[in-house]
Amino acid sequence: MSNPLLFNKFKLGPIDLQNRIVMAPMTRSRAGESRIPNDLMAEYYQQRAGTGLIITEATQVSAQGIGYPWTPGIHNEEQVEGWKKITSTVHEAGGKIFLQVFHVGRISHPVYHNGAKPVAPSAVKPEGKAFTPQGFVDFETPRALEISEIKAIVKDFRKSVENAKAAGFDGVEIHGANGYLIDQFLQDISNKRTDEYGGSIENRARFLFQILDEAIDAWDNEHIGLRLSPSGVVNNMGDSNSRALFTYVIQKLNAYNLAYLHLINPLAPIDDHPELIQDVSGYYGDLFDGIRIVNGGYNKTNGEEILKNGTAELVAYGVPFIANPDLPKRFELDAPLNEANQEKFYGGGAEGYTDYPVLDESYA
User: Fold this and answer.
1) Using CA atoms, how far apart are residues 101 and 78, in angstroms rounded to an integer?
2) Residue 207 burial by CB count (10 A; 0-12/13-18/19+): exposed, middle or buried?
3) pLDDT at 254 over 70
4) Active-site residue 180, yes or no?
């Protein structure tokens, strides 16, 4: 492959990236019961600092936003201090790192909230099961948020951006994908409200854009990215007119001059959903004027093709980074890839987390 673009340096606003390979955000549940980022997590991210940009695992903006075991937060001082160790370690290794922040909304369970119901735009129970420390249990019907509570959550997102900046991150990615709270407001399968946050596409998008307004005011537009999953059906998502919804959202984003828009391809089969766009990166990416990251099912070859045909400027890889901390080097040398141990994706210690081998120095 002549002059591969994947290995070219790239300028992400004021941030210089050493290549155009991005480590996608992936929940690994290694923060323990305290939900404070720790030394093991610092080692994990430092090992992967050879990529152009690391986007961390989804990190809750408040205790109310918790929906998984042992995931980190960014809403108290101890968590900020924990993340400082990680950003310092990554920067010392020459890497760049954004913090992904989210609120899970209805994708939670009362076990995380002292018996209280999870919250959502509307009291609509998702299909499927919640992941708890005791195993998988049925989701429960959430409680619809009051308007005052919605405005408070918007401020929680702002605070998460302020905390991320204080923790030394290079930027923040707002998680608007995969059926979590922002996505729940956007899509009418989960948003049945009749007030200013429901009904029309403009109203359903209000929560997202209020969060972006606060995030940009807390830092600036060049350090804020956004992730969307326009054809995603994970976590029981869907919309009566998905194409119109996400066309509106993405075209409106053009006025925000964000650091990037991160588009994720469907994580689950959508063959039974002919109304959804199969080519997410191509169709929706063409609507966005800024820098685009695409994620979902890419390898070295088709990732390079995406860059060559101009569909995106950066390509994100998920599972390959779990087992290959030196993934950019392996791509560059066409070296074989380690296989990920799926049984160790979530929870536990170093096994299946920081113990994957890197290439021997003699490999060429």
Assistant:
1) 17
2) buried
3) yes
4) yes
